[in-house]
């Protein structure tokens, strides 16, 4: 199957107290499903992928533009599966990529809560996300990465994973991060790397209302609620599977919640708990459960 470029762009506006999808364009295999209304004029959208996943050489490009006062929730239907970059060991690798840009207007809000990214054996994948925000805008951004089809014993068999994430607020770069993993060059289970962990997840929150007291409030909320998320380990396992996390305040107007564990749904549960706190304390909205 030849490689392809899947494109998607969407423009949202705020009219008469409601957020509306003002314009969209998509190219196979990406598509925006019919938007659905949420409370307080917020609009939800599903991103659909008609292919079995991101294949060797594929390139996905998504552009999101959210106008002043618009409130948008973006998610997808299932895991983003990244397939091997070559059919045989003798073939040259065909890297795949996903590039996203977000432009948030004044006093707008985007909650980007996709399903996890799954890296198959021999995958070579780059993820790049660039965000620009005007004053008063709010961004919640979730990211969960699984090391392969773990139920098949496929753990850290991918060839390379590279990601970058940057946020500009009112013309100033306030956050930038980069990560590159090559398990074949450096074992992921070594000290100083992933150690005993296999899965990772992050929740990024950017708003000019995020300060030290907000970060501390989130930390306390997770301390009180995280124990309910821990899954009991079967007795035949000698060492409990860990679920650990930390919260950092960024240089300006933001925080990052980072979690590491052994199961994606445990990490998702922790991020959902944090998401509920942020919705309640920052957006004045109740926690949200998305049916899929």
Strand content: 35-45%
Radius of gyration over alpha carbons? 19 Å
Please provide the ordered H/E string of secondary-structure elements: EEEEEEEEEEEEEEEEHEEH
Number of strands: 18
**How far is it from the N-terminal to the C-terminal residue, by CA?**
29 Å
Q: What fraction, in percent, of the residue positions are helical?
A: 10-25%
Helix count, DSSP H or I runs of 4 or more residues: 2
Largest sheet features: 11 strands, mixed
Q: What oligomeric state best describes the polypeptide chains here?
A: single chain
Overview of this structure, please?
- This protein is mainly β.
- The chain has a domain at about 5-205.
- It is built from two helices and 18 strands.
- Strands 3, 4, 5, 7, 8, 10, 11, 13, 16, 17 and 18 form an eleven-stranded mixed beta sheet that branches.
- Helix 1 packs across helix 2.
- The two termini are about 30 Å apart.
- The model has no long low-confidence stretch (mean pLDDT about 90).
Task: Walk me through the topology.
Blueprint: E1 5-15, E2 18-26, E3 30-32, E4 36-37, E5 43-49, E6 59-66, E7 71-76, E8 80-82, E9 96-104, E10 109-112, E11 117-119, E12 124-133, E13 138-146, E14 160-169, E15 172-181, E16 199-206, H1 212-225, E17 243-249, E18 254-261, H2 264-283
Parallel strand pairs: 1-6, 5-7, 6-9, 7-10, 8-11, 9-12, 10-13, 11-13, 12-14
Antiparallel strand pairs: 1-2, 3-5, 4-5, 13-16, 14-15, 16-18, 17-18
Helix pairs in contact: 1-2
Sum this structure up briefly.
This protein has 292 residues and is mainly β.
């Amino acid at each position: 199957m030849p490689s392809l470029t899947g494109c998607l762009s969407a423009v949202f506006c705020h009219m008469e107290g409601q957020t509306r999808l003002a314009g969209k364009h998509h190219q196979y295999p990406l598509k925006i499903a019919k938007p659905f209304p949420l409370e307080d004029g917020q609009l939800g959208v599903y991103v659909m992928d008609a292919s079995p996943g991101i294949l060797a050489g594929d390139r996905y490009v998504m552009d999101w533009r959210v106008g002043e006062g618009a409130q948008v929730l973006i998610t997808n239907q299932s895991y983003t599966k990244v397939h091997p970059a070559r059919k045989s060991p003798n073939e040259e690798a065909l890297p795949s990529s996903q590039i996203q840009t977000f432009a948030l207007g004044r006093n707008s809000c985007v909650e980007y809560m996709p399903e996890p990214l799954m890296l198959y054996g021999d995958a070579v994948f780059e993820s790049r996300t660039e965000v620009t925000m005007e004053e008063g805008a709010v961004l919640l951004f979730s990211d969960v990465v699984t090391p392969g089809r773990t139920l098949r014993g496929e753990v850290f068999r991918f060839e390379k994973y590279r990601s970058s994430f940057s946020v500009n607020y009112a013309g100033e770069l306030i956050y930038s991060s980069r990560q590159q993993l090559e398990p074949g060059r450096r074992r992921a289970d070594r000290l100083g790397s992933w150690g005993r962990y296999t899965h990772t997840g992050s929740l990024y929150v950017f708003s000019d209302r995020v300060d030290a007291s907000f970060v501390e409030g989130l930390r306390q909320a997770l301390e009180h609620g995280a124990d309910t998320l821990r899954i009991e380990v079967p007795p035949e396992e000698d060492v409990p599977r860990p679920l650990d996390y930390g919260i950092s305040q960024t240089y300006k107007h933001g925080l990052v919640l980072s979690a590491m564990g052994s199961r994606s749904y445990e990490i998702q549960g922790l991020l959902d708990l944090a998401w509920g706190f942020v919705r309640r304390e920052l957006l004045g909205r109740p926690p949200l459960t998305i049916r899929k």
